[in-house]
């Protein structure tokens, strides 16, 4: 009987947070990855079983009694397709914690195949994109004829994990992306900015290629989408420069050098940093008539929230009564209020 959860990439920074929380919540996940020493160490610590699995070999014995895979090993631009196809072959629900637009778009292409296999394909069950997806749907519900959606992220404290930083390095020199008239469109990095009023402070955000450029369109049908992030002026200047040296930044040796430097840093924020940090999501929708609706989500630190949302979604998909199949975004299945089920979250209109 397929009734098990397999957490792949359990030994990464975020994968370990998720694995530990899953066990504390009473789940008994199978821990998995390619590095046997690291996977076994975590499995022994948590008292869980483990399996070593290499997606590239296409030997699927590790998945044959599994109901849900929670895929935590990025960069997902390289790892999502082989894992998703393995899940399709074995009729296993697929979840991941990606934030990469091209991964969402690629997963959407498997919608019909997933329905035929009777499985759910839901990338982005972490900070990107659960809170922003819920915000997008909430605003659409407030203004049903919305034609434009803009989101902005702001973090207080915390820092990046290796996995997130490496994903950014892999995308150096690629510019930004927006949704324009329903089509994902490339734009120059750092050149589109906007002052955002969070209600308690005003900050200038720079446009970034966040996952909602893909997912919010499938959740809401809104055809014009931009996402901003509150960033230091120096970083915005570097983003602008990247448009002119993109070919250099895209060279493999340049990316490899950046990744090697990332790996010399701490793996991610420690417990104290996560406890003290806070995140915010601002959102605005506008209709063709000029009507607007704005709201603000207050959230815990991003990696802690990722563990919370990923484990909760995995638990719900494991439930025998769960029936959604095909490609879905988190809010399209669990609703706009899903994010408010978690401690430390608050939503208010602006």
Task: Provide structural commentary.
The chain is an alpha/beta fold and 350 residues long. The protein has two domains: 151 residues, Rossmann fold, CATH 3.40.50.720; 172 residues, Dihydrodipicolinate Reductase, domain 2, CATH 3.30.360.10. Helix content is 39%, strand content 25%. The strands form three sheets. Strands 3-2-1-4-5-6-15 form a seven-stranded parallel sheet, sandwiched between helices. Strands 10-11-12-7-13-14-16 form a seven-stranded mixed sheet. The termini are far apart.
Write a concise keyword list for the protein shown above:
Dihydrodipicolinate Reductase, domain 2, alpha/beta, Rossmann fold, seven-stranded mixed β-sheet, 350 residues, 39% helix, single chain
Quickly describe the structure.
39% of the residues lie in helices and 25% in strands. The protein is built from 14 helices and 16 strands.
Could you outline the blueprint of secondary structure elements for this entry?
Blueprint: E1 4-8, H1 13-24, E2 30-33, H2 36-46, E3 50-52, E4 66-71, H3 76-90, E5 93-96, H4 101-108, H5 111-117, E6 120-122, H6 130-142, E7 146-156, H7 162-170, E8 176-180, E9 183-187, E10 193-197, E11 202-207, H8 212-220, E12 224-230, H9 233-242, H10 246-249, H11 252-262, H12 271-276, E13 278-287, E14 292-300, H13 302-318, E15 326-327, H14 330-334, E16 346-349
Parallel strand pairs: 1-2, 1-4, 2-3, 4-5, 5-6, 6-15, 7-12
Antiparallel strand pairs: 7-13, 8-9, 10-11, 11-12, 13-14, 14-16
Give the low-confidence spans: 160-167
What's the helix-strand series?
Answer: EHEHEEHEHHEHEHEEEEHEHHHHEEHEHE
| Radius of gyration, whole Å | 20 Å
Q: What's the helical proportion of residues? A: 25-40%
The CATH first-level class of the largest domain comes to Alpha Beta
CATH topology name of the largest domain? Dihydrodipicolinate Reductase, domain 2
CATH homologous superfamily caption of the largest domain: Dihydrodipicolinate Reductase, domain 2
How are the strands of the largest sheet arranged? 3-2-1-4-5-6-15
The percent range for strand residues is 25-35%
Number of domains: 2
User: How many E strands?
Assistant: 16
């Amino acid at each position: 009987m397929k009734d098990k959860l397999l957490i792949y990439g359990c030994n990464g920074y975020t994968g370990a947070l998720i694995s530990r929380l899953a066990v504390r919540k009473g789940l008994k996940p199978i821990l998995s990855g390619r590095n046997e020493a690291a996977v076994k160490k975590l499995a022994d610590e948590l008292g869980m079983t483990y399996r070593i699995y290499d997606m590239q070999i296409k030997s699927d014995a590790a998945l044959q009694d599994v109901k849900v895979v929670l895929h935590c090993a990025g960069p997902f631009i390289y790892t999502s397709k082989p894992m998703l196809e393995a899940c399709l072959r074995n009729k296993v629900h697929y979840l991941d914690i990606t934030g990469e637009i091209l991964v969402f778009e690629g997963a959407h292409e498997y919608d019909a195949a997933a329905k035929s296999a009777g499985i759910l394909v839901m990338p982005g069950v972490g900070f990107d994109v659960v809170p922003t997806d819920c915000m997008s749907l909430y605003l659409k519900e407030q203004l049903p004829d919305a034609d434009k959606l803009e989101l902005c992220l702001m973090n207080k404290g915390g820092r990046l994990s290796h996995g997130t930083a490496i994903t950014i390095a892999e995308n150096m020199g690629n510019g930004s992306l927006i949704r324009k008239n329903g089509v994902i469109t490339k734009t120059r990095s750092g050149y589109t900015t906007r002052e955002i009023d969070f209600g308690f402070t005003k900050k200038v955000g720079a446009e970034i290629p966040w996952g909602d450029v893909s997912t919010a369109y499938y959740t809401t049908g809104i055809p014009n989408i931009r996402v901003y992030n509150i960033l230091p002026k120096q970083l915005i200047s570097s983003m602008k420069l990247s448009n002119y040296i993109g070919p250099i930044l895209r060279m493999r040796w340049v990316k490899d050098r950046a990744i090697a430097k990332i790996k010399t840093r701490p793996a991610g924020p420690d417990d104290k940093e996560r406890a003290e940090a806070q995140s915010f999501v601002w959102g605005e929708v506008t209709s063709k008539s000029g009507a607007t609706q704005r709201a603000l989500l207050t959230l815990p630190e991003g990696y802690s929230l990722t563990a919370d949302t990923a484990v909760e979604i995995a638990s719900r998909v494991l439930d025998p009564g769960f029936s959604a199949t095909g490609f879905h975004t988190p809010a399209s299945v669990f609703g706009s209020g899903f994010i408010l089920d978690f401690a430390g979250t608050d939503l208010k209109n602006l």
